[in-house]
Amino acid sequence: MDSDHIHLLCGAHPKIAAGRIVQIFKSITAREIFKRKPEVKKDLWGGEFWSDGYYAGTVGERGDWGSVERYIVSQGKPREELKQLKLF
Question: In whole angstroms, what is the distance from residue 21 CA to residue 2 CA?
Fold first, then answer.
């Protein structure tokens, strides 16, 4: 999790489009948040919890799932905590 976005790592059947997974996730989470904390909706621009945009990357069956998982776990940490090679 970062200050203005989240990262999810999930598995799904290849016939399910990544955009559909995002749509389902956004719908369910917004509905639950508004149900549990209705006051949140009035503080949001236009009453929308999620923005329209998203980024989806895929990892194949033989892909390096561990690398993606490590990337997601490292999100939200201060840059000095990350052990990443500096190019410039």
Answer: 20
Q: Is 33 exposed, middle or buried (0-12, 13-18, 19+ CB in 10 A)?
A: middle
* Spatial distance between the Cα atoms of 29 and 26, rounded to a whole number of angstroms: 5
Q: Which residue in this structure is represented by tokens 């997974």?
A: 21
Rounded to an integer, what distance in angstroms lies between the CA atom of residue 14 and that of residue 82? 32
Instruction: Read off the pTM.
Output: 0.68
Ramachandran region, residue 36 (left: φ > 0; alpha: ψ -120 to 50; beta: rest): alpha
Token readout for 14 is: 């290849």
What pLDDT digit, counting tens, does each position of 16-69 carry?
Answer: 999 999 999 999 999 999 999 888 888 887 788 898 899 888 877 777 778 878
